[in-house]
Inverse folding.
């Protein structure tokens, strides 16, 4: 586009894209809030299981001089003992954390580590089934409907979790399974909205709204920890459901699937968006070119990267509360804070990196493929390096917190890497491809809890958790290197259908015609009045 013909975007504070960003951001926060609030609540729901009249404990929590004191503070009725030659904590530190088992005195559920793994992982058992359909349905019916109802369905089921938990772990697993199935439509549907609303050089920044999931996680853990401490674990799910319902009302009233449908968008902003997108986005989506998608090396590298990156993230997100509780002995409020804090840094890292990525693209200092590879290097290989540091942190609580925080934070560059790359290669079918990517992620979602449950079953030790982190490191490094070697973030020829009915230019011409007619009418009326 020539400089003289550039469309200037008005700088007012509340553009339609701004409002959309905030609602998408909160929507993803809700999506993660309802999937991970059980991760922190289950720590208070389940009693530590004794084995041979001895409670399962970590060598990091207690040393011999303080064991008698800690025994007095334990309400489990079991003896707690030191099982390792690791350097013990100081008496003061041990006393501060002595409540780590006593806080479960009101819990009624006798679920071992394997059952807990099933409960936490059941959300993902069928989550993969609706990933690809979510992308297809968004192309047909719009993201407003698919994302909105998917999230709200999960919110409604969240309200019933306490009731199902009291019925038994089988009922809870079944409810979580259905909840995961419904919520599976949400994530892939969003790329359809991004492709129709966001100019190419703004995508990295806009996709950071997806990392509202991180802020949702960061707030859910400490807030839930406070709620559990004050009112009990059941209220975690009631509060989450209320917040999700408020978001759904705002989403339904304020979001539209395209600039042309929005009744309050300014003409300047609408023209800018449509002109920036050009013919890359079809108004009506044709049949999905499955053969071309499955033959694309970049698509497979994006799938691999999503698999590896989320293996690391889900390992930390799902099991950080258990890790801090039973390895480092933090109480429920400290566990919530320490588990949630890294995800806030993930959002901040994502936003900062997105600005860098968009700057590199806008100024042509780096091509699109290399920007995506740089971001992916941080979100996968970088996370793997810090995960390895966490594996060898042992009983050093400060080192564990630092490495865990860094590992979660650097994954935030996924918004500038694989997530943005999907829209780069095919705006028309980005939702479908993201559905394929999230199918692999859903598999990760139920494998990791099962693996952690297997490795730590009646063996909550730093050495066993080290094995958990080793596995995550392997997948992170392999997936990051694969993307760097084989992916290319270039628009694919199969993105544009042969008959692109109603491209944005057509819509733009119609809008201009209507506007000119209105202006003409106003001018005529003005002349007559004068």
């Amino acid at each position: 586009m020539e400089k003289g013909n550039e469309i200037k975007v008005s700088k007012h504070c509340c553009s339609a894209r701004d409002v959309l960003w905030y609602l998408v951001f909160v929507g993803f926060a809700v999506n993660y809030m309802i999937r991970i609030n059980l991760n922190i609540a289950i720590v208070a729901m389940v009693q530590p299981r004794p084995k041979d009249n001895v409670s399962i404990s970590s060598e990091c929590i207690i040393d011999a001089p303080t064991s008698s004191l800690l025994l007095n503070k334990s309400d489990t009725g079991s003896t707690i003992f030191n099982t390792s030659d690791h350097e013990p904590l100081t008496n003061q530190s041990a006393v501060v954390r002595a409540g780590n088992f006593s806080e479960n005195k009101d819990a009624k559920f006798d679920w071992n580590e394997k059952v807990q793994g099933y409960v936490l992982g059941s959300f993902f058992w069928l989550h993969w089934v609706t990933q690809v359909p979510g992308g297809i349905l968004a192309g047909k019916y719009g993201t407003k409907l698919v994302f909105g109802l998917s999230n709200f369905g999960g919110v409604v089921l969240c309200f019933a979790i306490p009731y199902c938990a009291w019925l038994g772990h089988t009922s809870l697993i079944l409810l979580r399974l259905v909840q995961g199935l419904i919520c599976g439509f949400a994530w892939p549907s969003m790329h359809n909205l991004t492709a129709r609303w966001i100019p190419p050089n703004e995508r990295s920044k806009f996709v950071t709204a997806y990392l509202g999931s991180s802020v949702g996680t960061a707030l859910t853990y400490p807030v839930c920890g406070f709620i559990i401490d004050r009112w009990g674990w059941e209220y975690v799910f009631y509060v989450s459901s209320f917040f999700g319902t408020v978001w759904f009302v705002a989403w339904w009233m304020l979001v539209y699937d395209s600039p042309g449908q929005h009744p309050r968008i300014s003409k300047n902003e609408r023209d800018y968006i449509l002109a920036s997108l050009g013919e890359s986005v079809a108004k009506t989506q044709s049949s999905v070119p499955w053969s071309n998608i499955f033959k694309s090396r970049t698509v497979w590298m994006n799938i691999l990267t999503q698999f590896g990156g989320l293996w690391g993230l889900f390992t930390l997100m799902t099991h950080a509360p258990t890790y801090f509780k039973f390895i480092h002995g933090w109480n429920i409020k400290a566990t919530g804070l320490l588990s949630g804090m890294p995800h806030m840094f993930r959002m901040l890292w994502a936003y900062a990196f997105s600005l860098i990525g968009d700057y590199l693209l806008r100024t042509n200092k780096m091509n699109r493929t290399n920007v995506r590879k740089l971001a992916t290097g941080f979100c996968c290989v970088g996370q793997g390096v810090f995960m390895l540091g966490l594996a060898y942190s042992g009983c050093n609580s400060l080192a564990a917190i630092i490495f865990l925080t860094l590992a979660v934070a650097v994954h935030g560059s996924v918004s500038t890497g694989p997530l943005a790359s999907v829209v780069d290669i095919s705006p028309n079918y980005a939702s479908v491809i993201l559905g394929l990517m999230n199918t692999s992620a859903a598999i990760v979602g139920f494998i990791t809890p099962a693996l952690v449950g297997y490795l730590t079953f009646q063996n909550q030790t730093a050495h066993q958790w080290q094995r958990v982190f080793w596995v995550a490191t392997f997948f992170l490094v392999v997936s990051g290197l694969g993307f760097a070697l084989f992916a290319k973030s270039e628009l694919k020829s199969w993105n544009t259908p042969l008959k692109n009915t109603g491209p944005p230019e057509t819509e733009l011409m119609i809008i201009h015609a209507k506007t000119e007619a209105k202006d003409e009418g106003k001018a005529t009326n003005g002349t007559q009045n004068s």
Remarks:
- The chain has 22 helices and two strands.
